[in-house]
Every structure is written in structure tokens, then in C-alpha cells.
Amino acid sequence: MEPFTRETGLVAPLDRVNVDTDQIIPKQFLKRIERTGFGQFLFYDWRYIDGEKLNPDFELNTPRYEGASILLTRNNFGSGSSREHAPWALLDYGFRVILAPSFADIFFNNCFKNGVLPIVLPEETIDELFRRVEVKEGYKLTVDLEAQTISDEDGLNIEFSVDPYRRECLLKGLDDIGVTLQYMDKIDAYEEKLAARGY
After folding, report:
1. What angle do CA 164, 167, 169 make, to 5 degrees?
2. Is 2:59 a contact under the CB 8 Å cutoff?
3. What's the predicted TM-score (pTM) here?
4. Domain-embedded: residue 70
5. In the structure, how many helices (H) and strands (E) does the chain have?
6. From CA 18, how far away is CA 172, in angstroms rounded?
């Protein structure tokens, strides 16, 4: 997993509540066994008309948001089934940060395990960010995980909190397997002891 320390990127707005994981990555695209290649199917039913033509009315298809790495959205993002493919699709598309007033618990946890930083902010702060995105084309934010701050070029400065363990894992680029591999010396020593005892 790629370490996350700081992300300065274009902000894309998705002004919708209760976006579930089937909208993030529809079930028909869950046949791949790799974690990559899902970005092309992100928000598929909204991005495309009849599965072919880009929908010009969908926010993320607007040229001004092309290449965005920070997704701004509304309450209960990531609800529905617990598919881990949802953060895979968001990351593969290019999003490293998601800002929302609330997230579904399982999706929230899966984001941290896959290198995506979900940040919970008060609704009034999210409203202000939507306003800034609307009035300023090319609006960017800098999300600093070490300092736990969000800032822009116009003097905005927001503090956010992250569970210390999750923060440390993201900073070091460690998923659950990576955390375990840090203790390989101790695991090997334990296995050697068992082998010596005939187990």
C-alpha cells in the first residue's frame, strides 16, 4: 500500500446522500481478482448512458473535475454491502481523500485498509467546501495527514481527527498484512521454537 502523508489535489463534488457501494462499483464488475482496473467502472450507472456514452449531466464527467484526487460528498457515503471493491475503485480512479459528514462503518474501515483517507467533517464545513468548489474552477485542497489539517490557497484551515493507529498505518503505507509482516522476526523465532519441540 502506498504511504499517505499529504495530498494536494483538485476537489470534485458529488452532491448526493446515501451513495451506496453498488452505485460506487456495480456488482457486475466484481469478477476481477486484482485490486486494480476498477476505476473505469466507478459510478458506472451515473457516468454512462446505456453503458457506452458519457453522461454529460454527471458531475464527475465535467472537464473541470478531470484528474481530481479529493472527493467531496454528503451523508452516509459508502452504505450498502460491504464490498472492498468500492475503495479499490475510488483509488484506481485517482481519489486519495473523501470528505463527508458521515460514512458507512464498513466502507470507512475498508478505506483505511486500502490507502484511501476518509475524513468526517461537520455538515456546515462540507457546505462551505461545496460553495468554494462551485465558485472557483480548479479549486484545490491540501490534506496533511501528519498535521491533520485541510487548507486551501485562500486561507482556509480546517483541523480533523483520525484514529492514531489508522493514521500511523496510512503514514507508513501498511495494510493488515503489512502490519503483521513487521513482526516476521518474532514470528520466525516462535516457529523455530515450535519446530524444536516437535510441533
Report:
1. 110
2. no
3. 0.89
4. yes
5. 8, 9
6. 31
- CA 58 from chain centre, in angstroms, equals 20
DSSP 167-197: HHHHHHT--HHHHHHTTHHHHHHHHHHHHHT
Q: Which residues pair with 118 in a beta bridge?
A: 98
Residue 1 inside a domain? The answer is no
Residue 9 neighbours by CB distance under 10 Å: 18
CATH at 20: 3.20.19.10
Q: How much of the chain, in percent, has pLDDT values that exceed 90?
A: 78
Return the pLDDT at 45: 95
Where in the sequence is the domain holding 66, given as residue range(s)? 6-196
Q: How many CA atoms lie within 13 A of 69 on its CB side?
A: 13
> Considering its fold, how many domains does the chain have in total?
1
Retrieve residue 44's grid coordinates. 458506472
- DSSP, collapsed to helix, strand or coil, labels residue 115 as coil
pLDDT tens digit sequence for 52-78: 899 999 999 999 999 999 999 999 999
